[in-house]
Specification:
Elements lengths: L7 H53 L4 E7 L5 E2 L3 E9 L5 E10 L5 E11 L3 E9 L5 E11 L2 E11 L14 H12 L7 E4 L8 E9 L5 E9 L28
Parallel strand pairs: 2-8
Antiparallel strand pairs: 1-3, 3-6, 4-5, 4-7, 7-8, 9-10, 10-11
Length: 258
């Protein structure tokens, strides 16, 4: 046995101390490894959760269903039957299935014809449907197109004319008709109209805004009427204008039909 100048007890003590130090180093290394593994695990969990949230948010941001109604004649004036193309854009990830229907009414609001077709629009696609709508002789008609599918319901209202130049008044024209109205227009030109439009939010319903409009007329009389405007997400979307007059097709108050 080789002697290093230490007693057996000292040698044993030094061996134990060396082993303890090595164990401490290994424990520190193991702790460091566990910290690295734990940190990596947290990162993976966070990344997975973030991807899941992004997927959920992306699913909520899918497109919408939109419709476009286009007349064969840009002025919606026809010789006999009105012709329209009803376009449905399905921007969702869900197939849309249901029906597209329409009703036609005369100037008094009486429906005299209706029809419908079944439709199925695949996800993220566009379908077009052509309609030929009968009139009832020369005149103007109201047509309502309705779409009712899986995730979307809407109504589009339009007015079309059939040979409007052939519409004849049931009463004859008085001899002084033109002279009378020429004089009235001259007098009216001297009156300041003082146009005023007031929003009536309490009357807003059925996807439309309601406004009260006023103007001054002859004899200091105030003329009042109601204006209803469809609510649309598209600021450039155009709508047909329908004028309802008292005693013909208008009703007191904001008309619920437009």
């Amino acid at each position: 046995m080789i002697s290093l100048g230490y007693t057996n007890d000292e040698i044993a003590t030094r061996i134990l101390m060396t082993a303890t130090v090595n164990n401490l180093k290994r424990m520190r290394w193991l702790k460091l490894c566990w910290l690295v593994i734990a940190f990596a695990g947290v990162q993976i969990m966070y990344t997975t959760a973030a991807k899941a949230r992004a997927h959920e948010e992306g699913a909520g941001d899918e497109g919408e269903v939109e419709t476009i109604l286009t007349p064969a004649n840009k002025n919606a004036e026809f010789d006999k039957n009105a012709k329209y193309t009803f376009e449905v854009k399905n921007g969702t990830n869900t197939p849309q299935e249901g029906k597209v229907s329409y009703t036609v009414a005369n100037g008094m609001g009486k429906i005299f014809h209706r029809d419908s077709i079944k439709v199925k629009i695949p996800k993220n696609s566009t379908e077009k449907y052509n309609f030929e709508i009968p009139g009832d002789g020369a005149g103007f008609y109201k047509v309502n197109f309705m779409i009712n599918v899986t995730e979307y319901d809407d109504t589009t209202r339009r007015v079309f004319g059939v040979h409007p130049e052939k519409i004849e008044a049931k009463r004859g024209k008085p001899a002084d008709f033109d002279a009378f109205w020429d004089n009235v227009k001259l007098e009216l030109a001297k009156v300041k109209p003082k146009f005023k439009v007031t929003a009536m939010p309490k009357l807003d319903k059925d996807n439309r805004h309601v406004y009260l409009f006023e103007m001054q007329s002859l004899g200091d009389m105030t003329i009042r009427g109601w204006l209803t405007v469809p609510i649309s997400k598209s600021p450039n979307k155009k709508f047909a204008v329908l004028l309802g007059l008292p005693g013909y097709q208008g009703k007191p108050g904001a008309n619920d039909g437009y």
